[in-house]
Design goal:
Helicase, Ruva Protein, domain 3; 3-stranded parallel sheet; mainly alpha; 190 residues; 2 domains
Length: 190
Amino acid sequence: MTAFALAGEMHLPVFTIRLEGLITKFMGETAIKLRLIFDEINKTKGIFFFDEFDAIGGKRNVTIDVGEIRRILNSFLQFIEQNSSDSLIIGATNHPELLDKALFRRFDDVITYLLPTDKYIEETMRRRLDLFNSEGVSWEKVVSSAMGLSYAELTKICEDVMKESVLSGSKVISTENLIKEISDRKNSHQ
């Protein structure tokens, strides 16, 4: 969400780098694909978003690695140091403890998002559901069940509830629908 918010403010396109298309089993091929991405970063001004960044930015001292991931990370570090474009490169992870420390020196800023408190859970969900009728929602129950979820998860829950509401021909959001989506989201983590 941060990448898209920045893109909106800066009036730039967002390019999401899908790691499943980047990482291959063939030695050296991933670094070649990474070089192509950085060539594009230099040619096209935009926001380049690497999600699940720990897949290529993992610590180099991990003993189970066969060396290829280390080579990929070293290539990434070199490419980012050589980068002189006007593009913005963003890496996101849910596991910052897995990232190599050298990455933290290469990025200008590191932003950590904590899980929202009850006040921000309600505020986030109310704003997201603003175009729908949520007057009958018991926010106390919803907030209580949503504790421990991230902002992105709260947003996705709201989008799913709104989609179901539209498909059923209603613009009314219920406590039950929100709690069901929250429960489904939490159960998918297990």
